[in-house]
Amino acid sequence: MSTKCKNCPLRQHALFTKMTSDEVRFTQKFKKGELTIDAGTPLMMEGSNSPQLYTALSGMGIRYKTLEDGKRHVVNFVFPGDFIGLQAGVMNEMYHSVDAVTRMTLCVFDRKELWSFFRNHPERAFDLTWLAAIEEHFLGEALAAVGQRSATERIIWAFVRIFQRGTELGLVDQNRMPLPYRQQDLADALGLSLVHTNKTLARLRDRQLAAWSDGYLTINDLGRLAQEGDMTLEPLPTRPLF
Amino acid sequence: MSTKCKNCPLRQHALFTKMTSDEVRFTQKFKKGELTIDAGTPLMMEGSNSPQLYTALSGMGIRYKTLEDGKRHVVNFVFPGDFIGLQAGVMNEMYHSVDAVTRMTLCVFDRKELWSFFRNHPERAFDLTWLAAIEEHFLGEALAAVGQRSATERIIWAFVRIFQRGTELGLVDQNRMPLPYRQQDLADALGLSLVHTNKTLARLRDRQLAAWSDGYLTINDLGRLAQEGDMTLEPLPTRPLF
DNA sequence: CGAACTATTGACACCCCTCAAGACCCGTGG
DNA sequence: CCACGGGTCTTGAGGGGTGTCAATAGTTCG
Questions:
Q1: Does at least one atom of strand D sit less than 7 Å from the CB of A196?
Q2: S-S: B125 plus which of A64, A164, B102, B118, CB 3.0-4.6 Å?
Q3: Three-class SS state of A158
């Protein structure tokens, strides 16, 4: 998997903004290379202490926690550009697992090198904190959705956020974007049963609000969908410029 | 409210570890003072962009998001030592509100000064990121609890975490700690109705597992409680030393 | 002494979960 | 080629956990 890695996320994705050429040179050092893994491969495991951090270059994954009684909660869907392993980087342990859902290619970094990088480039450390704050914001919204919204509203909430994210990433074409997960994954993310999720999806499809089948999500009128789900269509948070 | 502020959290709470005397001197500069507010006072508002950050010195508060349809989700209970406003500090906006539930005294910082502080003391910037990661960890666990656990299990989960936190802060005396919230607050935190929360609390009381009344939470056997709630009694995450 | 707030309890309804069975798809192996 | 198994999606039936409504009691405060 050796490449020039022109589109290494260190240059372009949200984490690193306005890098100086000196910094870019520096990053070459701790980028260890690229990694490609097949669909279904576990990338990080709850309780482990991986010395590596990743950013997703392509493909999709899933982030989840496993409860004591075996139940699973899906915390997040991993999309290209996402940073993986920040927790293990800062704490000494991962508190959720990450699996590949499709074949994925990842940028690999060494944890220790990353710290020295931030030590030498304090401006960049802010980017990391910003990333963590974004995560926090998302989790807070998810918590509120799972806690307060009905099944239909939860699914609509998830679809709207996913679609916004997909638009941002250029994955949407003709009101349609790839979403290669199982209904069970969505159910586990929203705290719903598989059966009820299925029936709710069918209802959304019948009402022409959103159709998710064969790994593709189609939404013709995002505004109408959001309205049906009692949510205002705010843009995703963006990186403030200092 | 002028005081010497010997126990300013900049010196002792989790955020700042092992400060050099130089750093301590520096922090004096951006600490703007102390603030005391009465019970019920809003401290930060969703959508606002407060130029101030706080850490709670004493008293308790509540962090919540308000949904479009007026429902409220309680994200977290604010205890002494907690940092308030990190999100507004990093993003340009708060995405949840914070109210005082009892009379609170707070340490006030200036947002801008804080950034320059971290710029000049990169080691300390890591502390901030660590704080954000802790928040993320907590929210992930809350999300999984609300998504996957039954009403009884959710309440047990909340009680165990609160009691652990209280123990850490030295608030527990004779298996009893102050918890000055309403049942409605807990209900809104766990995605339950007030009535069902009340009945579940009564059942826990009858079974001698946990009693919460008159603003005090009593747990005689934390291990047994955790066991009844299908959770393993792990210690709260602690700051790794580098 | 009434107003406002919170806790408590009962009755009832319904959303959502569980169980179960079938359909469809795809791989593998006989 | 077809049989078979595993995985996912789909649909129906029934039950239980939880929400909603409503009324009472206790407390605080003006």
A1: no
A2: B118
A3: helix
